[in-house]
Amino acid sequence: MAALVFSPLAVAQAPRGGPDGAQPQPPGQPGPGNSLAPPTLDPSMSISRQQALNLARGSFQGRVLSVRMDGSNWRVRIDQNGTVFNVFVDGRTGEVSRFPD
């Protein structure tokens, strides 16, 4: 008799999700708060991450450390024989510039 009373409890599951009831995103899947999600780009941006990388490499020698959005520009960090500096690639025009650190 006790088995019949408790058996439905054994298969019942607690609701999943966060405090708001939203389902969590699987690892590696884009979603709110998921740091693996690619940045949302401004539709007016015409320069891709790869294009920005190529433009920076074409203008400056060295090892590329990172490429990320910084406002409407791509910021490319380059290590040139131990000197690390930023190169900015305009996300709309592709213009490459270097500012002193």
Structure notes:
- This protein has a domain at 61-101.
- The model is unreliable at 33-37 (pLDDT under 50).
- With 101 residues, the chain is α+β, with helices and mostly antiparallel strands.
- The chain is 21% helix and 27% strand.
- The chain has helices spanning 2-11, 49-59; strands at 63-70, 73-80, 83-90, 96-98.
- The radius of gyration is 24 Å and the shape is elongated.
- The chain starts with a helix and ends with a strand.
- This is PepSY domain-containing protein.
- Residues 12-23 have a biased composition (Low complexity).
- Residues 1-45 are annotated as: Disordered.
Please state the average pLDDT score.
76
Contiguous uncertain segments of 5+ residues: 33-37
Overall number of strands? 4
* Helical content class: 10-25%
What fraction strand? Answer: 25-35%
How are the strands ordered across the major sheet?
Answer: 1-2-3-4
- Structural classification: alpha+beta
Total of DSSP H or I helical runs spanning 4+ residues: 2
Quaternary state reads: single chain
**What distance lies between the first and last C-alpha atoms, to the nearest angstrom?**
76 Å
Order of helices and strands: HHEEEE
Quick one: overall form? elongated
Protein name: PepSY domain-containing protein
Organism: SAR86 cluster bacterium
